[in-house]
Design goal:
One of its GO terms (biological process) is mitochondrial translation. This protein has helices at 2-7, 244-249; strands at residues 9-10, 16-21, 24-25, 28-29, 32-37, 49-51, 64-66, 106-114, 123-128, 131-136, 146-149, 165-167, 176-178, 180-181, 188-190, 198-204, 207-211, 217-221, 225-228. It is mainly beta. The relative contact order is 0.11.
Length: 296
């Protein structure tokens, strides 16, 4: 039966699987075909909000649609931990830092530091020439600072300032970085959360070893761009929510019904210990007298 079943399983395409099962039961042939849609890898969906991006990059705050953990088509609850929350405008971050490949680095000026409700770290409005863009702000960045961007890798490592963007091969060992590219020429992929940073550990051949916030070490190409410094809002993980209403404003659904006190499913009812008891020795039975009689 197993060989007959496997012979009838046909793979039609990469994303569709069709099973043709032809079991023979009591001399009768039954045919059943089921078509399964396989999801494409890497197409994750965020069930918190939908951002309505425009065709071209803009610093204008973008409109969002809150999903509250529900599927946008069916309306069913998919992510149970998400719900409600204050509506926020989305600020489009420019994830690429483009600079000259030769000569002096490009200088950009920080215009404003602001909070963004859609991410944990603060953001900075930066201007260069006639272009304005948003980037992630570093720990000590303030309005009026000059930051530099370059793709040139010199023979001797540079001495960067906080907020500068250079290739990994141009930075000295021990530098704290964030906004790290996974592959050269792609958008910044790693280290976006508030207060996080990566550390350049060593170099070999054309690779640079970086320790990520998870303490894992990865070897990247020396031409991958990275931004110098630690991300802002370093006390984000130490903030005290303080009330259930504040947690609802952050967009977290209450975990009601999980901890049940009396039946002990996710907790045990607290009871007093029984009072002290004294262990007594076992009682000995008394010896019964034996009465003997003699007939006279």
């Amino acid at each position: 039966m197993l060989s007959r079943f496997t012979a009838n399983c046909v793979l039609q395409s990469r994303h569709k699987t069709v099973f043709n099962i032809l079991p023979t039961l009591c001399g009768q042939v039954r045919c059943k075909t089921k078509q399964v849609e396989k999801p494409k890898p890497g197409a994750g969906i965020q069930y918190r909000r939908i951002v309505h991006f425009k065709d071209e990059y803009t610093i204008e705050p973008l409109k969002t649609t809150h999903l509250a953990g529900r599927d946008p088509v069916t309306g069913r609850v998919i992510a149970k931990g998400i719900g409600g929350g204050i509506k926020q405008k989305y600020h489009w971050i420019k994830w690429e830092r483009d600079g000259p490949t030769e000569g002096a680095p490009q200088e950009e000026r920080v215009i404003q530091i602001m909070d963004d409700g859609c991410r944990t770290a603060k953001i900075a409005l930066v201007g260069v020439g006639d272009e304005l863009k948003y980037i992630l702000a570093t720990e000590n960045m303030k309005a009026g600072d000059l930051i530099r961007t370059s793709k040139f890798i010199p023979r001797i490592p540079v001495r960067p300032n906080e907020g500068d963007a250079y290739p990994l091969g141009a930075l000295p060992v021990g530098t704290r970085i964030h906004n790290l590219e996974k592959n050269p020429g792609f958008a910044f992929h790693f280290i976006h959360a508030a207060g996080t940073y990566g550390t350049i550990l060593r170099k070999f051949d054309d690779k640079v070893v970086v320790q990520l916030p998870s303490k894992r070490e990865f070897a990247f190409d020396r031409t991958c761009m990275a931004t110098v410094g630690r991300l802002s809002n370093i006390n984000h993980n130490k903030e005290h929510i303080g009330s259930a209403q504040r947690n609802r404003e952050l967009g977290n659904r209450p975990r009601s019904g999980l901890w049940q006190r009396k039946d002990g499913r996710f907790g045990r009812k607290i009871r007093k210990l029984p009072p002290m008891s004294v262990i007594l020795p076992p009682s000995r039975k008394g010896v019964e007298p034996i009465m003997l009689t003699i007939p006279l």
